[in-house]
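Q: Give me the 3D complex with hexanoyl-coenzyme A.
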Amino acid sequence: APTTYSYLEVSEPRPGVGQVTLSRPKALNALSTPLITELNSVLQSLSTSPTIGAIILTGSPKAFAAGADIKEMAPLTFSSAYTNSFIESWSDLTTTVKKPILAAVSGYALGGGCELALMCDLIYCTTGATFGQPEIKLGTVPGAGGSQRLTRAVGKSKAMELILTGKFFSGEEAEKWGVAARAFATHEELMASVLDTAETIASYSKVAVMAAKEVVNKSQDLALRDGVEYERRVFHSLFGSEDQKIGMKAFAEKQKPEWKHK
Ligand code: HXC
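A: Here is the predicted complex, encoded as C-alpha cells.
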C-alpha cells in the first residue's frame, strides 16, 4: 500500500528514478523539524531500495523551500538548540544517502532551502529561481552548511557578499557561478531535463554511480593529494566488480552492457 506523508509526495516518474516533492504549500515549503524527519526517512528508504538508482528532490513552481521554519525557530534558546542538536539531522541527507540526489529548484530557495539544495549532489534550476542566504536579516547566520558549501561553490568574496548582505541571486546567476549545473527558462523544461538526467544516471551500474558520487564528494573534504589517492583506491577496487567486466567487455564487443547491479 502506498505510504502517505504529511509534507511530501513520493513517486517513481521514470524507471529507477525516485522523486520526492516537498509539499507544504501554505508555508512555501518552510523546512520544519517534522518535514525534515519525513524527508530523511523517505530518502533513507529510496537509498536502500534495490530498484532506485537516482533521486530527485524538488518543490513547487513557486518554492523549492523558503527556509527553515522561522516560526519554529523564533522561541528557541541556545540551551534547547544545543541539547537537542537542532538542525544536526539535516546532515543525514549527505552522510547516509549514497545514491545521487538531484535538486530541481524553481521559485524560492532561501536560507535552509538554499542549503538543502547545496547539500544535494547537483542542482538544476529555472533561470527565474530565487536563491539566497538571508539569515543576516533575521539576526543569525546560515546553520545548515551554507557558509561552507556556498563558499566552496562561488568563492570567498562572492559568498561574503551574499551572506553579509542577505541579497538574493537568480537561477541565471546560480548557473553562471557554478552553484547550479544548468538553468532552464521554465519549470516544465527544468523537470523534463532533470528527469532525463536522473534516468540516465539510473541506467548505469549502481556500483559505479555510487563510487562516482563518493569520490567527487571527497574532493570537498580532502586535500588534493589525499583526494587523488582516495580516487585511485576506489578506481582500483572497481576492478573487483562484475559491472566493470561487463561494461568493458560490452564496449569491446560493440554490445550494450547489461549491468548486474542496475
Ligand atoms: C516559516 C514561512 C517561511 C519560513 C514563508 N513562510 N517562509 N514560514 N518559515 N521560512 C510563510 C509565511 O509566514 C506565510 O504564512 C506564507 O509562508 C506565505 O509567505 P508570504 O511571506 O506571505 O509570501 P510572499 O509575500 O510571496 O513572500 C515570499 C518570501 C517570504 C519572500 C519567500 O515568505 C520570506 O521572506 N520568507 C522568509 C525567507 C527567509 O528568511 N528564509 C530564511 C529563514 S532562516 P502566513 O501564515 O502568513 O500565510 C533559515 C535558517 C537556516 O533558513 C539555518 C539552518 C537550517
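A quick observation: The longest helix spans residues 33-48.
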